[in-house]
Specification:
The structure holds 2 protein chains of 2 kinds. Chain A is built from 9 helices and 21 strands. Chain A is of the alpha+beta class. Chain A has a 6-stranded mixed β-sheet with strand order 6-7-8-3-9-10, sandwiched between helices. In chain A, 45% of the residues are buried. The longest helix of chain B has 24 residues. Chain B starts with a strand and ends with a helix. In chain B, a hairpin with a 2-residue loop joins strand 8 and strand 9. In chain B, helix 3 packs parallel to helix 5, helix 4 runs antiparallel to helix 5 and helix 9 runs parallel beside helix 12. A 5-stranded antiparallel β-sheet of chain B has the order 1-4-5-3-2, with helices on one face. In chain B, strands 6-8-9 form a 3-stranded antiparallel β-sheet. In chain B, strands 11-13-12 form a 3-stranded antiparallel β-sheet, covered by helices on one side. Chain B is built from 15 helices and 13 strands. The chains are: A alpha+beta, B alpha+beta. The structure holds adenosine-5'-diphosphate (2 copies) and magnesium ion (2 copies). The site of one magnesium ion (MG) has 4 residues of chain B, from loops.
């Protein structure tokens, strides 16, 4: 097992100007489950393929443990790509299906059997080892495929959207299995997905990429509670964070006819480039419903209320200034409300819960730290 | 509920007649064609539609469109691969439950999955011919910038090509078309090919189709050797003293022999003009088939074309036509040798092999007859004896029926899992007998539509 280090790793595809991955610096701890996440085209797969040895590294280096593998052939990197293909061999037993790569490599029979048995135990396949694949369910067949990678005992597992060609049911089931399996095996794993929910639920840490640039790395909790910039704030979380850019008047952001106070250190951090504006974000669950006229409150008109059992989400517009706020791709404001408390067409008043506003420079989109951030600043 | 949607370059309304409301693995036997296929992860079925055979694969939306698009692009780049017909989305069953997207490809006529090539048992010589063909395909794919990501015998189809095989790509799911490949991508594909091929051979061994003592890992290793030899021949830089200019022609001739045309060759002379460096920049497979096409209009695979061209040369010499224009001689050869030879094979047997392959086999047979009888044998005579003594007993390879006995397990692998892991010998025998009967019926043009029903019920006991 080993650490993985991207050291200013850069990939410029032939015939293109802009790097697909630009000076990536990322250190992954031994045994860590790191998720690379971001919108399509942000450079996740390219980063993973650089680590796998499938893409040239045009500048910088890549290390596995202390070993510089930048110019090492894929098969000599001691990594395993999981799920790339898992057609099972019908005439071979489950054990042989798992161990055949070791047999090719000339590993002694007894050792193959031992490694296969260990893997089978972890994968809950022990009783099937001497059966043929056709006796297995879909999920079990997939675990055999994982077993193929496990018995090779690689230093690092690489997975690129491994769930994307599974149906919805198998996807949720497999997601949980991969995460718990990885924890039991303790093998350093780099996992690519465009799905932030997958990232939040699976990763020890998450690295968000955009346009080939690393935006932020951190634990799911850090990414959620202290997004380093407006992009990460909008990308992580579902439903998405409400975000808008407002004038700063007397140390407060003017949201419609209301003022939301900013912290002194945030105001102090504004520069000329910000032009007297600030970007403020707050999550749907960071709002309290209050009586009209409460200081710092603003009115929202409900266009739609979505009931998800324990939670309800209101999708609406700021009554004063309908265009000021948006959440994700929608131009709506989203508020978590108590189920049954609000109907379509209602107008409610909300305030941002103390300390739960995220404040960013209007010019750069960078987070402006508040008092709550001081404990440990998220490192980008 | 979404509506069924067919995405196709040339939509065919007959596709609507297929039972899209049913999960593919439950499609009724009436629509299915029980042809052998390779090992796969998705549910794949062959169906008869009017006079065509199609392959249907259930996969996810995104992958279906991607594969459809990649196969089309590969086709345009003249890579031998299956032809995509359509993507079917918006499927739902009678209760409105959504069903998976399907990609439909044309069944490649005269193609043989590798398991069907080893109809009795694995012959190392045949295996290495398959490997040679796959190496050529992989080199061609790499030259145009295609990274396959899952090279295997199962993802390749084979067609007879004179004494050799020609390989066709069938599964592009994991592939990607790049401007050019990195060495890492090529190395990964080659290594994976080796691993997969050996795995597939181990599987045949486990099924009892390999004689003791065959070096399966060695067969897998030949892929790497063949690939590297061909890649070097096609791409390496060669340096020589300026007076050895003939080596330019020599290099081109070598590539022609390997079946490639050189469309662009870089020739660099150093400052004092003492040494020359050459490197092929653009090469194009199909040297012989293009030449034959130009001369005769026959569109065949490269080794077949090479064989036919050789015969054309021999024919021209024998008829003292060396001085005439190539075009005219080729036309005469076509009318007076090729066509009459094919015509001499009875009509009902002729469709078992494609005409170029048939001609090649008749040439082989004529050689054998000539050896036996120590005389020149005219082609029509060789054709008649070949048809009668050999072709009559060969399976119909246009849409080959019947596979390795144990391969019923492959047909089963994607179906509802069961607890059986062995097929009783009696059931196997019954399946074999039914296969033979189906074959006969198919040849006679009286295929009982229930042929495949009995086959599967026997298996399920
Ligand atoms: N082989 C390639 N040649 C040229 N550009 C590429 C290639 N592969 C990816 N790209 C480009 O590089 C960027 C990053 O791609 P990729 O790493 O696949 O992103 P992601 O995995 O995040 O969707 C995109 O703009 C994509 O179009
Ligand atoms: N168009 C076709 N013509 C002939 N055989 C085909 C065709 N399409 C698929 N097959 C057969 O079906 C098998 C599985 O198809 P494939 O596309 O490889 O599925 P998977 O993506 O699940 O591996 C192949 O190995 C091949 O034998
Ligand atoms: Mg990707
Ligand atoms: Mg396949």
């Amino acid at each position: 097992m080993a650490t993985v280090t991207f050291d200013h790793a850069t990939r410029v595809y032939p015939g293109t100007e802009r790097p697909a991955v630009d000076q990536l610096n990322l250190h992954i701890e031994d045994g860590e489950f790191l998720v690379l996440v971001g919108p399509s085209g942000c450079g996740k797969s390219t980063s993973l393929r650089m680590l796998a040895g499938l893409e040239d590294v045009n500048a910088g280096r890549i290390l596995i443990g202390d070993r510089d593998v930048t110019d090492v052939q894929p098969k000599d990197r001691d990594i395993a790509m999981v799920f790339q293909n898992y057609a099972l061999y019908p005439h071979m037993t489950v054990a042989d299906n798992m161990g055949f790569a070791l047999k090719i490599a000339g590993t002694p029979k007894a050792e193959i059997r031992q490694r296969v048995e260990e893997a089978a135990k972890i994968l809950d396949l022990t009783e099937y080892l001497d059966r043929k694949p056709k006796a297995l369910s879909g999920g079990q067949r997939q675990r055999v495929a994982m077993g193929r990678a496990i018995v090779r005992q690689p230093q690092v597992f690489l997975m690129d959207e491994p769930l994307s060609n599974l149906d919805a049911k198998l996807r949720v089931q497999t997601r949980t299995q991969i995460a718990s399996l990885q924890r039991r095996l303790g093998v350093t794993t780099v996992y690519v997905t465009h799905d932030q929910t997958e990232a939040l639920t699976m990763g020890d840490r998450i690295a968000v990429l955009k346009g080939g640039l690393l935006q932020q790395v951190g634990t799911p909790a850090e990414m959620y509670s202290k997004p380093a910039n407006v992009f990460v704030a909008g990308f992580i979380g579902s439903p998405a964070m409400n975000i808008g850019t407002f004038d700063v008047v007397d140390g407060a952001a003017k949201i419609g006819s209301t003022s939301v106070p900013l912290e002194a250190q945030q105001v102090a951090a504004l520069t000329d480039a910000d032009g007297g504006k600030v970007t403020v974000g707050f999550r749907p669950e960071s709002l309290d419903v209050v009586p009209a006229g409460t200081p710092g409150s603003f009115a929202i008109e409900a266009d739609l209320v979505e009931n998800l059992g324990s939670d309800s989400f209101l999708y609406g517009k700021l009554k004063d200034d309908a265009a000021a706020l948006h959440a994700g791709d929608s131009d709506q404001v989203i508020v978590r409300v108590a189920p049954g408390s609000v109907n379509k067409g209602d107008v409610i008043n909300v305030v941002i819960k103390p300390g739960q506003a995220h404040v960013f420079s209007a010019a750069t989109g960078e987070r402006l730290a508040g008092a709550n951030d001081s404990v440990e600043a998220p490192a980008a | 509920m979404e509506n069924l949607q067919i995405t196709a370059a040339k939509p065919d309304s007959a596709l609507l007649d297929l039972p899209w409301k049913i999960p593919l693995e439950d499609w009724p036997d009436e629509v299915l064609a029980a042809l052998p296929r390779g090992i796969s992860r998705h549910t794949v079925r062959f169906v008869r539609l009017k006079d065509r055979v199609l392959a249907v694969k259930e996969t996810r939306d995104h992958y279906a469109f991607r594969e459809y698009d990649l196969l089309r692009r590969l086709g345009k780049l003249e890579i031998p691969c299956v032809v995509p017909l359509a993507v079917i989305t918006g499927r739902a069953d009678d209760n409105g439950e959504p069903l998976e997207t399907c990609i439909v490809t044309e069944h490649l006529a005269f193609s043989l999955p590798y398991r069907a090539v080893f109809s009795q048992s694995l012959q190392p010589k045949t295996a290495s011919r398959l490997i040679d063909a796959l190496a050529v395909l992989l080199v061609r794919l790499h030259l145009i910038g295609f990274y396959w990501g899952d090279v295997s015998l199962s993802n390749t189809l084979f067609r007879r090509d004179a004494a050799a095989f020609a390989a066709y790509l069938v599964d592009a799911e994991t592939g990607d078309l790049h401007r050019e490949l990195t060495d890492g991508q090529r190395a990964y594909d080659i290594d994976l090919a080796r691993t997969n091929i050996i795995g597939e051979l181990f599987d045949l061994e486990a099924g009892g189709f390999v004689d003791e003592g065959v070096d399966l890992v060695g067969i897998g290793d030949t892929l790497v050797e063949r690939y590297n030899e061909l890649w070097d021949a096609l791409t390496s830089v060669e340096s020589f003293p300026a007076e050895e200019r003939w080596r330019v022609d020599d290099r081109i001739r070598k590539l022609n022999d390997l079946g490639f045309d050189v469309d662009e060759l870089s020739i660099v002379t150093d400052l004092d003009g003492a040494t020359v460096q050459i490197q092929p920049k653009v090469v194009d497979a199909g040297h012989h088939s293009r030449r034959l096409l130009r001369l005769t209009g026959l569109d065949v695979q490269d080794n077949q074309a090479r064989r036919l061209l050789n015969d054309l040369d021999a024919w021209a010499a024998a008829h003292d036509r060396g001085e005439d224009s190539e075009q005219i001689v080729a036309h005469d050869w076509l009318m007076r040798s090729f066509e009459p030879t094919i015509q001499a094979v009875p009509h009902n047997l002729r469709r078992k092999l494609d005409p170029a392959q048939l001609f090649h086999e008749i040439l082989e047979h004529r050689w054998y007859m000539a050896q036996r009888e120590s005389r020149d044998v005219p082609m029509p005579e060789a054709a008649r004896e070949y048809a009668d003594e050999i072709l009559r007993h060969r399976p119909d390879e246009q849409a080959l029926l019947g596979s390795l006995p144990g391969d019923t397990e492959i047909i089963e692998l994607n179906e509802t899992p069961s607890d059986d892991d062995t097929v009783e010998a009696a059931a196997i025998q019954q399946i074999e007998a039914e296969d033979a009967a189906t074959l006969t019926a198919l040849r006679a043009g009286t295929l009982d539509i229930d042929g495949s029903v009995t086959r599967r019920s026997a298996f399920q006991r």
